[in-house]
Design brief:
eight-stranded mixed β-sheet; 2 domains; Rossmann fold; alpha/beta; six-stranded parallel β-sheet; binds uridine-5'-diphosphate-xylopyranose
């Protein structure tokens, strides 16, 4: 098929590359000439493990990149994968969606039935909006000349290729018969996992790639749009919940790692998304929960559970800051080293991360901050120009002469640091591990004043024995 993906961000570039690998003639279309040039030079416009290699292998063969909307004329399907950032009131800003729809309308071929697919996370009802904009700018009729579909993206940054080639589910909202047929054909290779051999895909698997084939779930458009929001909000609720339980565990002397393991053995609960943290963040959860809450208020159908999860998440950021204050007493004149600025490992995405909230609170309380991140420093610095942070290019440099080291993101390189060397660099040996990923028994032996979240014991946990 002739596929066009509008937008070369996380969604568009990954989706485009994947369809090109699976044999479709795919063009990524972006108004940003720099990103297009990067792709044409065989480079990924974003940091995502394996994506550079894939773009480099397929660009000019079945993958193309352009700024020219003229490619829409030949398209069988057009994915809209542009950004939908939050407005000040929490609702999604659909400016880029509107612009894309307008341009599609100007270039769409009246003699070729094309399926327009919203892949960005967009509020319920956006397919109707896009259809009406295309109708106005083209003078064509939805369902006569083109059809709408919703196909939300569930990719996790850092594991995007795995999620695109080995998804658990593919959700397609389509009501037009032709659109339904086209969508199924488009996904045939993914649904049946065929033609995957010899594709030089460099996967970073987080779970068993031989798991069951994906479920292809066809539904109406509005339900598909809602599935994405409801899923992300549910995951946010799950993490907020485990983080609250972690705080209670810490108060009562229980161990959250043990508790989460025991809870996760119940398949109704599941063992994923029960890992303690300083709070969820990133480019999706904050924006999607904000939009869902704003919409629910607008229609007087309030989602109190989601609101509580958002409030609780802010409390979790504050809890981490309070913990550091309790330990160091006053933060005036204290040096604190931060490990990790991205919202999770294996991404350079530093949008709306908990690090920005926590660092600001620490600076406001008088601390001086040194920070490191393997891939996220440039974006973090650009997005947080007002934060007075000393950025260091080597993780060890964060630890010189500091009163505390705070691990916020569990990048693999932090797990394998020379902690005995770190200990000797520090002014006082307080180490706060907000992901409970370091070996506390070992760190205590080295003389660290180690703390995790929701754990009390100074002995090795069962998890550590299992791992070691
Ligand atoms: C999320 C959804 O998982 C994905 O399906 C959707 O398409 C986009 O939003 P992503 O934002 O890439 O993906 O990150 P995810 O791995 O879901 O993590 C979100 C946040 O939750 C991160 O801050 C992460 O550190 C945190 N988290 C996750 C926890 O604190 N504990 C956990 O157990 C899991």
């Amino acid at each position: 098929m002739n596929v066009v993906c509008i937008g070369s961000g996380y969604v568009g570039s990954v989706t485009g590359a994947a369809f090109a690998v699976l044999g479709h003639h795919t063009t990524v279309l972006d108004i940003d000439q720099n990103k297009v040039d990067q792709m044409n030079a065989g480079k990924s416009p974003i940091y995502e493990p394996g994506l550079d290699h894939l773009i480099n292998s397929y660009i000019g063969r079945s993958l193309f990149a352009t700024t020219d909307y003229g490619v829409i004329y030949h398209a069988d399907v057009v994915f809209i994968g542009v950004g939908t950032p939050s407005k000040a009131d929490g609702t999604a800003d659909l400016t880029y969606i509107r612009l894309a729809a307008q341009s599609i309308g100007q270039y769409v071929n009246p003699d070729k039935f094309v399926v327009i697919i919203n892949k960005s996370t967009v509020p319920v009802g956006t397919a109707d909006l896009v259809a009406s904009i295309i109708e106005e700018s083209s003078n064509l009729k939805v369902d006569t000349h083109f059809a709408m579909a919703s196909n939300p993206e569930f990719l996790r940054e850092g594991y995007a290729l795995e999620d695109v080639f080995f998804p658990e589910r593919i959700v397609v909202g389509a009501e037009n018969i032709h659109a339904k047929k086209v969508m199924k054909e488009l996904y045939f290779n993914v649904i049946n996992r065929v033609e995957y051999e010899g594709k030089s895909i460099d996967f970073q698997f987080s779970h068993n790639p031989n798991a069951a084939l994906p479920i292809y779930y066809e539904t109406d458009i509005k339900s598909a749009e809602m599935i994405k929001y409801a899923s992300n909000a549910f995951l946010a609720v799950k993490i907020s919940y485990i983080n609250e339980i972690a705080r209670l565990c810490e108060t009562l002397g229980a161990n959250i790692t043990e508790v989460a393991t025991g809870m996760g053995m119940d398949s109704r609960i599941g063992n994923k998304f029960l890992q303690v943290s300083s709070g969820w963040s990133g480019s999706c959860f904050p924006k999607d929960t904000a939009e869902l809450l704003a919409t629910s208020q607008k229609y007087s159908c309030e989602l109190t559970v989601v609101q509580a999860a958002v409030d609780s998440n802010q409390q979790m950021h504050d809890y981490v800051v309070d913990k550091i204050k309790r330990k160091l007493k006053t933060l005036n004149g204290k040096n604190i080293g931060i490990l990790g600025l991205t919202f999770k490992p294996n991404t350079d995405d530093a949008r709306k991360t908990q690090a920005s909230v926590i660092i600001k609170e620490l600076i406001d309380a008088g601390a001086r901050i040194k920070a490191h991140d393997p891939h996220g420093m440039a974006m973090f610095q650009q997005l947080n120009p007002a934060l007075d942070v000393q950025y260091v290019s080597n993780a060890i440099d964060v630890t010189y002469n500091v009163d505390a080291v705070v691990l916020l993101t569990h990048w693999a390189e932090y797990l394998h640091m020379d902690w005995s060397f770190v200990k000797n660099n520090m002014r006082s040996p307080y180490l706060l591990d907000t992901r409970n990923v370091l070996k506390q028994g070992h760190l205590h032996q080295l003389g660290f004043d180690y703390e995790g979240l929701g754990i009390h014991s100074t002995k090795k946990t069962t998890q550590e024995f299992v791992r070691s």
